[in-house]
Amino acid sequence: MKVLIGSIIVVLVICFGVWLILSPSFKKVGDTAHKLRENVQGEENGEEKQERH
Questions:
Q1: What is the spatial distance between Cα 29 and Cα 49, in angstroms, rounded to a whole number?
Q2: CA-CA distance, 31 to 25, in Å (whole number)?
Q3: Local structure of 2: helix, strand or coil
Q4: pLDDT tens column, 11-34
Q5: What is the mean pLDDT of the chain?
């Protein structure tokens, strides 16, 4: 039983570490999706939004 609990804890720690490593990627994907959504909504309303550089 102790081995099972220890294994679960180790797996959770490893998953948490991987999530911390990948979290900046999620932010980039979220920002890209937000920009895309704004562009699509602007096109539906007949407006064109200019990209900022």
A1: 20
A2: 10
A3: helix
A4: 999 999 888 777 777 777 778 878
A5: 80
